[in-house]
Structure formats: C-alpha cells, structure tokens
Amino acid sequence: MIELPVLVLNQSYEPLNICRVRRAMVLLYQNKAEMLENGSGFIHSANREFSVPSVIRLASMIRRPHRMVRKITRLEIFRRDQFTCQYCGRQIRQLTLDHVLPRYRNGQHTWENVVSACVPCNRRKAGRTPAEAGMRLICQPTRPHDDGLFHIAAHYPHPRSEWQKYLPS
Ligand SMILES: [Zn+2]
C-alpha cells in the first residue's frame, strides 16, 4: 500500500509530480502538504490510524523554472535535432552547435537560432547565414515542447480515479 502512486499538486493546485504513499505521508506528517483525496483507506499503527493519500497539495509553492525557461545546453539541442546535422542530415555523434544567424551579427543564443551541425557543415557555413552559404536548414529550429512534470502527471500510465479532476483533460 505504501508503494502506491500519489499525485502531488503544487500549492496552486497544478499537478507537479507523482510520488509514493510513503513519501506523501512524510510530507503530510511534516505539515508540508495537505491531503486532498484519500484513495486507499487507512494504515493502522499501534495507537493511530493514518489516511492513505491519493492526492496531496503542497503547503508552499514550488517554482519550476524549467517550465518557463528550459535551459539551452549542447545536449538539449542535439536531442531536439535527434543528433542530426541540420544542414546535411547526417546522423552523427560528433556535432557542433551552429548559430544560424552568426553571433557576431547579433544572432541570439536561443532555441530558434541554434542548431546541430556536423563539423564539415559548420566549417563550410563559417560566419555566414545559410542563404549566404548556399545551405539550407532541414527544418526550422524551434523551442521543444514543454514535456515537464505536468505532462508526466497527465500521462502517467496508471492514473488513479481520484486524480482525474486535478489533471488536464
Ligand atoms: Zn552536416
């Protein structure tokens, strides 16, 4: 029973995470969360009985910076581009980052201006725009979809019935 999943809501009631009953009960016991739904009855100890939570809400707001600004790292860019050079389409591990509009021409270090490029393509493009270099991007770079915890909670493979009203439909 203490291994059952529990939906954790932020103070704002936004789904935040999934944890186990064991962890949820510690949070409740420490007054760091309140129980919103009891889905699993009770656990009895020698002299008390504890409700087994199915949904809890945190007492204070947890900031989720990655939801606002997902950090741009080399690896995140390579992942987004599926380790494919965005100019020649080669799938290769040895990739570099290319600023589509070069930095010295005020190209920004943003999801929309940074792509994966193999070394030969990066050299060939040099400090030019793709058009100037006669090269074409396979696809226009974009910010990856937010696949943060909200998404995880909504797509948890075994959501419990008590969670439904707290999850996006
Ligand atoms: Zn290439």
> What class would the helix/strand composition place it in?
alpha+beta
Report, as a whole number of angstroms, the end-to-end distance.
Answer: 27 Å
Bound molecules: zinc ion
Helix content range: 10-25%
- Report the C-alpha radius of gyration, rounded: 23 Å
| Uncertain segments | none
Beta-strand percent range: 25-35%
Task: Describe the strand arrangement of the main beta sheet, using strand numbers.
Answer: 2-1-4-3
Shape annotation: elongated
Please tally the helical runs, counting DSSP H or I stretches of 4 or more residues.
6
> What composes the largest sheet?
4 strands, mixed
Averaged pLDDT: 86
Number of strands: 6
> Secondary-structure element sequence?
EEHEEHHEEHHH
Number of domains in the coordinates?
2
Q: Characteristics of this structure?
A:
6 helices; DNA Binding (I), subunit A; 6 strands; alpha+beta; 4-stranded mixed beta sheet; two-stranded antiparallel sheet; elongated; 2 domains; binds zinc ion; 169 residues
Summarize it:
The protein is α+β, with helices and mostly antiparallel strands and 169 residues long. The protein has 2 domains: 5-65 and 147-166, no CATH class; 71-133, DNA Binding (I), subunit A, CATH 1.10.30.50. The chain has helices at 21-29, 65-68, 74-80, 119-125, 130-133, 149-154; strands spanning 5-9, 15-20, 33-44, 49-58, 95-99, 114-118.
